[in-house]
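Collaborator request log, item 7. Partner lab (contact: R.S.) asked for a structural prediction of Short chain dehydrogenase to inform their binding assays.
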Amino acid sequence: MADINTNEKLLQELGDNASFHKTDVSSYSEQSKTFQDVWDQYGRIDALLANAGVVDKGSIYILNHRGSDELPPKPNLGCTDVNFKGLVYGTQLAIHFMRKNETPGGSIIATSSNAAVIPHEAAPEYCGAKAGMVGFVRGASRVLKIKENIRINAVLPGVIRTPLLPAGAIAAVPPGCITQLSTVVSAFNKFLDDESLNGEALECSAEDVVPLVYGKSTMSPVPVWDPLFKMMHHENSGLPEAVA
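Returned to partner:
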């Protein structure tokens, strides 16, 4: 378990079943150390659950800047750093260590949000970062499976009753629309257990877990031109429909 905050109560409940590593996921060096420490302790990394997330740290609307002739200050993009960049950093490190497993490969699950597809006007950067996570998962999934035996998928929870949300925000959600934590856990378990799932996004809404997109036509990839792929990534893609 890696987090920027220590949860002593949870650690006591988990006991010897878990180890804690204080980590700022927006820092590549801190994630690197955590991955190395976990590898040194257990000698394997089977799964990465990229669950860290924060909301907007500032306002791109700059409503309080209206009427000023001065240029607005540089925006604080900490939300993007944690949510999106943290996933990219973790994925690259997971690839490195999962290659060294006794049976190479593993599973990566990214916690996105229903804000990836449903507007949340109070947190536009959060919406963009979470949508970016889904795009990243879909963009990387097929090559990771072919090249590394690694599956990568995304879970999109709705509003969950947690201490992170103010009581007023929870109260504003219509009755029956609160997503149960058990619903989200079931989506994670589905991705961990079903090895046929790769590049998928499951939306967790109330008590339901449903695919984000229906129909294979919506999942048709943009044709990959292998000369460009090799120029960028040092090998051909291995995708059967790639254009030589």
